[in-house]
Amino acid sequence: MNKFALKKDIWLPIAVLMIAAGFVYFFNLNNKLFWDDSDWIINNIFVHEFSWTNIKFWFTHDVLAGVGLQSNYYRPFLFLTFALNYIVAGAQPLFWHLTSNFIHIANAILVFFLLRGLELGISKSQK
Question: Which chain regions cross the lipid bilayer (predicted)?
Fold first, then answer.
């Protein structure tokens, strides 16, 4: 078996995942920011800049504290992605959706590698 064939069992499923997910998520690219985006992004000054004060805030408050509300969602790394998005693109929806789509596709690829690594009980001699 040549090297190309060995790699094919990795890159082909990844390509299929990327194409399928890209197709599914492509349709959100023309959407606007909506629903909770006003509270989580647009009106939340703690994601409008990357500073030590804001980082401390992300790790010590829930997601709606930045707009004076309360929730039980504690998502400091979500704030990090929001801040990075806001610094790069402001409130332009296209970039937000592209970032979200990329994260979803990357997660699908990570799940592929996780399942591949677990081998689901198939021994190497059975392959």
Answer: 12-29, 77-96, 102-122
Residue 125 located in a structural domain: no
Length of the chain: 127
* Domain total in the chain: 1
3-state secondary structure (DSSP) of residue 56: helix
What would the two tokens of residue 117 be? 């690594």
Residues 80-119 pLDDT 10s: 999 999 999 999 999 999 999 999 999 999 999 898 888 7
Kindly calculate the radius of gyration of the chain based on its CA atoms and give it in whole angstroms: 20
d(CA 28, CA 20): 14
Q: What is the pTM of this model?
A: 0.75
CB 33 within 8 A of CB 117: no
Q: Are 58 and 46 in contact (CB under 8 A)?
A: yes
